[in-house]
């Protein structure tokens, strides 16, 4: 009980202090969240979603650089555990608050309250979402918006600031998805039923066969699924913080008739460039500047479309509403359908265009101490369909690595390190491989503290002929420099010569394009244990991830609240 009250007290003290001090350096922002299953109709189809304080997306965390966020999370799912990850927050000094079940903590048991406490040390656009099983796609997600310190000027100007989360949406429950993905023979979960913009989409109920549907279970007049409205005042300039938390889909977002200037990516200032539409992969965040400078007598569509997959749900729609037009008035035009789904060159070019902004460049170390090449493949292991990285399909341990390593809890996970490379000389990335001998393992990479590590993500053919997917990889606990992208097999002699060491953008999530490679560099200077994985929820669930441990001996005393499972019982 006292554990919970301390932050409240601190908050009160801090608030009182702020009445007397003219410039308070940092504040504590306290949130009380209850996570609960509720019936919602985000795309007009009623299903059980995981809501925070009755909402999906959950409440937006608004903070200033340097603030401490305290989230007191009550798990009211009744029969299900939970964990929430703070996506893009590096958790410097608080690796136990990363919220990654199996890596940084035990799951929060049904009925329990758990307190996350961490500092938002940099301004920018971040996210939070469930990191347990496949709960994210049940609706447990939201935005974190960290503003610059008072008096600090950003290198771009705008009148208003808006956050929009893009998502895809399945009608099947996460339980059905997990059961299908874990079944033999494999049952793919299929494409999502709709695309959501800020938690709202529109499923065409009349295509359902209705005999088993209760009255009103799919109701296109339900106000919960009326399109999201972005109201703008003619002549004003807007910063739109656009992020994606799709389960599966790569998206392209566009505001009809309006160009956008990209200025931020994953919390880093971007050398501005103008685009008509933006490709955004799950786990990425961008800020774009949009001017309300078009004919103000009408509304415009804001549209999200799936790219990189041949089959997809209909365009996701929101209304870009010019005040004082009626916010619900449909634009008189056909919504944008986005670029060709298979135009990899277009997406690659846009990825390459994202550079660090002049004046805000933190140059990468010019060399690295270690290069780890990660080839992703689809495999069958004992008849189960899995994703693997260098022939190892990742599984989460029962004892969180952070506790296992810090408390020396014996061999609670596979101690044999995973491979640093694959058989690059003989592996044809364009061929369907049998790959029958992949193994499942929870082994991890141990990084020398403060060493510089290069990661080469290498994409390949799936188990279908002539097919390679886009995978957005997300790193916990760090930002990395994006040194380069390419199509084909990475050439370890010549490609590093083309690395951008001048103004590479730093990100926490990056795509590896179909049949392509992506090269990253980061410094292993954040004591803790950090997941690095494909942000497609089904792919991570099927083994597409790795884990890095660094400087664990430097981690402070672990809170007992993260323990209670596996070998940590009784700790
Ligand atoms: C919904 O589906 C029905 C039946 O296929 C079709 O006639 C109708 O045009 C669709 N409505 C929309 C808004 O797409
Ligand atoms: C559909 O929703 C509208 C608006 O809330 C409501 O008036 C109507 O009764 C609902 N239809 C059914 C069948 O529940
Ligand atoms: C968008 O940018 C393109 C290329 O710079 C330009 O040709 C076009 O006129 C711009 N459109 C608007 C609406 O500003
Ligand atoms: C992309 O797909 C379209 C059909 O959706 C097809 O006509 C076209 O040839 C494809 N382009 C490439 C480069 O594969
Ligand atoms: C995985 O192992 C199989 C069997 O040993 C081998 O043929 C294949 O090349 C390996 N794949 C990778 C990606 O290393
Ligand atoms: C897979 O492993 C088994 C047992 O080690 C071996 O007999 C078989 O040749 C391997 N298959 C491939 C394709 O490497
Ligand atoms: C990390 O490495 C950098 C560059 O080599 C060095 O300046 C710094 O002192 C090191 N920090 C620690 C904590 O070892
Ligand atoms: C696969 O791609 C190759 C090369 O682009 C092409 O020759 C072949 O016909 C394709 N096969 C199928 C089944 O599409
Ligand atoms: Cu993936």
From TrEMBL:
<dbReference type="Pfam" id="PF00394">
    <property type="entry name" value="Cu-oxidase"/>
</dbReference>
<feature type="signal peptide">
    <location>
        <begin position="1"/>
        <end position="21"/>
    </location>
</feature>
<keyword id="KW-0479">Metal-binding</keyword>
<keyword id="KW-0732">Signal</keyword>
<keyword id="KW-0677">Repeat</keyword>
<keyword id="KW-1015">Disulfide bond</keyword>
<keyword id="KW-0560">Oxidoreductase</keyword>
<feature type="domain" description="Plastocyanin-like">
    <location>
        <begin position="417"/>
        <end position="551"/>
    </location>
</feature>
<dbReference type="GO" id="GO:0005507">
    <property type="term" value="F:copper ion binding"/>
</dbReference>
<dbReference type="Pfam" id="PF07732">
    <property type="entry name" value="Cu-oxidase_3"/>
</dbReference>
<dbReference type="InterPro" id="IPR001117">
    <property type="entry name" value="Cu-oxidase_2nd"/>
</dbReference>
<feature type="domain" description="Plastocyanin-like">
    <location>
        <begin position="161"/>
        <end position="324"/>
    </location>
</feature>
<comment type="similarity">
    <text>Belongs to the multicopper oxidase family.</text>
</comment>
<dbReference type="GO" id="GO:0005576">
    <property type="term" value="C:extracellular region"/>
</dbReference>
<dbReference type="Pfam" id="PF07731">
    <property type="entry name" value="Cu-oxidase_2"/>
</dbReference>
<dbReference type="InterPro" id="IPR008972">
    <property type="entry name" value="Cupredoxin"/>
</dbReference>
<dbReference type="InterPro" id="IPR045087">
    <property type="entry name" value="Cu-oxidase_fam"/>
</dbReference>
<dbReference type="InterPro" id="IPR011706">
    <property type="entry name" value="Cu-oxidase_C"/>
</dbReference>
<dbReference type="InterPro" id="IPR011707">
    <property type="entry name" value="Cu-oxidase-like_N"/>
</dbReference>
<dbReference type="InterPro" id="IPR017760">
    <property type="entry name" value="L-ascorbate_oxidase_pln"/>
</dbReference>
<keyword id="KW-0964">Secreted</keyword>
<protein>
    <recommendedName>
        <fullName>L-ascorbate oxidase</fullName>
        <ecNumber>1.10.3.3</ecNumber>
    </recommendedName>
</protein>
<dbReference type="InterPro" id="IPR002355">
    <property type="entry name" value="Cu_oxidase_Cu_BS"/>
</dbReference>
<dbReference type="InterPro" id="IPR034267">
    <property type="entry name" value="CuRO_3_AAO"/>
</dbReference>
<dbReference type="GO" id="GO:0008447">
    <property type="term" value="F:L-ascorbate oxidase activity"/>
</dbReference>
<keyword id="KW-0186">Copper</keyword>
<dbReference type="InterPro" id="IPR034259">
    <property type="entry name" value="CuRO_1_AAO"/>
</dbReference>
<feature type="domain" description="Plastocyanin-like">
    <location>
        <begin position="35"/>
        <end position="149"/>
    </location>
</feature>
<dbReference type="InterPro" id="IPR033138">
    <property type="entry name" value="Cu_oxidase_CS"/>
</dbReference>
<comment type="subunit">
    <text>Dimer.</text>
</comment>
